[in-house]
Design a protein that fits this description.
368 residues; alpha/beta; Quinone Oxidoreductase, Chain A, domain 1; Rossmann fold; 7-stranded mixed β-sheet; 6-stranded parallel β-sheet; 11 helices; 32% helix; globular
């Protein structure tokens, strides 16, 4: 990271200027703040910049200055980020995730506050960002620097390093929101099994780990039978094939589980709903199979189940803080390490099609 040189004034010039009133008082806080801001504004950094042409989106590593960043009251030096399914859609062009061009992608980041006019944060604070349209309409985490609103940030829990927070990322934070959703609808370990779809992926692997540690009987659904041992290590008690749930659903099926964490949508979600037991809850947080939902009202009016939508992008700060506090308490750090791989940020373009194809196991931490 390079900083442009500042003009050096000799002590004699400074003294003369202070006497005749033509130079600033170097001991005033106004001057110190101005010089500090001048230095920050000229700081150069690397970023992955998405641009759009008639041929489609283009992505290139670019040198930017902090003045090129969007508005915000907190400037963060990014140390780690990650790749989620939504990031994969953005980088492959398979989904209209980026809605403002040019843009730095990346919906997550962790780092350290450089400057802040938000009283909640001071230089040196460790912070996390998930969602809020970052990487979609506001410059995101695939860069060495980011400027955002303080309201979007959560202070990093002391239990986690910056790398661990990105091993969790939006995927793991969303998984915890799903767990909180099940608990809010009285689904406890005593209620019966809980189904987790896409169990070997980012959301699924964290959901399996947390639910198992809380004492739930976890049924893990995956399209990758080779991941059976991995899922059992995370705590899954049963493994079922994705094909069991991926076809058209009947209005009602055999009652098999008390709760569901679903990342797939479409037929998978419809089947999960049809086989949820009386009074159960299905949390829906993804659309990996599709946005459609061909089901009936029968499970809702005959079994009294609840379909709870889980939004991680615009969730209020209090709910985010609760999710991160619970992750610090309920996610085994050793299991987190077992489902995490670390790569340099430069690998993110290569990883994007892999995560869309379902070939990425667990979580990927990207070092900036």
């Amino acid at each position: 990271m390079a900083t442009a040189a500042l003009t050096v004034t000799t002590p004699r010039d400074l003294l003369r200027g202070r006497l005749d009133g033509t130079a600033p008082d170097l001991y005033s806080m106004e001057f110190i703040r101005a010089k500090r801001q001048e230095t920050v504004s000229m700081t150069k950094f690397k970023a992955l910049l998405a641009t759009k042409s008639d041929a489609g989106p283009n992505f290139a590593w670019t040198d930017l200055a902090t003045d090129d960043l969007m508005d915000g009251d907190v400037l963060v030096r990014v140390s780690h980020t990650t790749i989620n399914y939504k990031d994969g859609l953005a980088l492959t062009g398979k989904g209209p995730i980026i809605r403002k061009w040019p843009l730095i992608p990346g919906i997550d980041f962790a780092g350290e506050v450089v400057t802040s006019s938000d009283p909640s944060f001071k230089p040196g604070d460790g912070v996390i960002l998930n969602g809020w349209g970052v990487g979609e309409t506001h410059h995101g985490g695939y860069a060495e620097m980011a400027r955002v609103k303080g309201d979007w940030l959560v202070k990093r829990p002391e239990a986690f390093t910056a790398a661990q927070t990105m091993a969790i990322g939006t995927a793991g934070y969303t998984a915890m929101l799903c767990v909180l959703g099940l608990e809010a609808h009285a689904v406890s370990p005593a209620s019966g099994p809980v189904l987790v779809t896409g169990a070997a992926g980012g959301v699924g692997s964290v959901a399996v780990s947390v639910l198992a540690r809380l004492g739930y009987h976890v049924i893990a659904s995956t399209g990758r039978p080779e991941e059976k041992q991995f899922l059992e290590t995370l705590g899954a008690k049963e493994i079922i094939a994705r094909d069991e749930l991926s076809g058209p659903a009947r209005p009602l099926g055999k009652e098999r589980w008390a709760g569901v964490v679903d990342v797939a949508g479409s037929h998978t979600l419809a089947n999960a709903i049809a086989m949820t037991q009386y009074g159960g809850c299905v949390t829906a947080c993804g659309l990996a199979q599709g946005m459609d939902l061909a089901t009936s009202v029968a499970p809702f009016i005959l079994r009294g189940i609840t379909l709870a939508g889980i939004d991680s992008v615009m969730a209020p700060k209090a709910k985010r803080q609760m999710a991160w506090e619970r992750l610090a308490r309920d996610l085994d750090p050793e299991l987190l390490a077992s489902l995490t791989v670390t790569r340099p940020l430069a690998d993110v373009i290569e990883l994007a099609p892999q995560i869309i194809a379902g070939k990425v196991r667990g979580r990927v931490v990207l070092e900036v």
